[in-house]
């Protein structure tokens, strides 16, 4: 969550949500490529930090885009539902990743994500 505190909101405000989400997508792709070859704990930690920055950019930009589609009275409710769905899917993915790891192995798990 540190990128959100440090400057993701500023970056989305300065460059726009479409630009920030495109940058997040590129960072996700770089993260997948990097983690597919990582074999040490240091590589894993660096890759997960990169993944966190990418996630934060996409999440912040997506929230801005979503709330722009609704008026102020509806935006809060829609954002709450959106957050519930996102964190529900993230929780299910976290729980399911152990099974996928044991079934397919590390490199294939990275490409599934």
Query: Mind summarizing the main beta sheet?
Result: none
Secondary structure: number of strands: 0
Query: Kindly state the mean pLDDT as a whole number?
Result: 87
Q: Count the DSSP helices.
A: 5
- Outline: globular
Beta-strand fraction estimate:
under 5%
* Helical residues, percent: over 70%
What Rg do the Cα atoms give? Answer: 16 Å
The N- to C-terminal Cα distance equals 20 Å
Structural class category: mainly alpha
String of helices and strands: HHHHH
Uncertain ranges: none
Overview of the structural elements:
The protein has 113 residues and is mainly alpha-helical. The chain is built from five helices and no strands. The protein has helices at residues 2-15, 17-37, 41-68, 72-104, 106-112.
What secondary-structure arrangement, pairings included, does this model have?
Blueprint: H1 2-15, H2 17-37, H3 41-68, H4 72-104, H5 106-112
Helix pairs in contact: 1-2, 1-3, 2-3, 2-5, 3-4, 4-5
Give a brief outline of the structure:
The protein has 113 residues and is mostly helical. It has helices at 2-15, 17-37, 41-68, 72-104, 106-112.
């Amino acid at each position: 969550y540190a990128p959100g505190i440090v400057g993701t909101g500023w970056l989305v405000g300065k460059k726009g949500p479409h630009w920030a989400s495109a940058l997040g997508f590129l960072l996700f792709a770089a993260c997948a490529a990097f983690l597919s070859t990582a074999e040490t704990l240091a590589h894993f930690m660096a890759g997960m930090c990169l993944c966190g920055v990418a996630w934060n950019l996409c999440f912040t930009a997506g929230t801005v885009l979503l709330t722009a589609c609704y008026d102020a009275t509806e935006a809060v409710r829609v954002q709450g539902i959106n957050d519930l769905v996102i964190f529900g899917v993230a929780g299910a993915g976290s729980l399911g990743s152990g099974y996928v790891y044991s079934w397919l192995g590390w490199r294939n798990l990275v490409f599934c994500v």
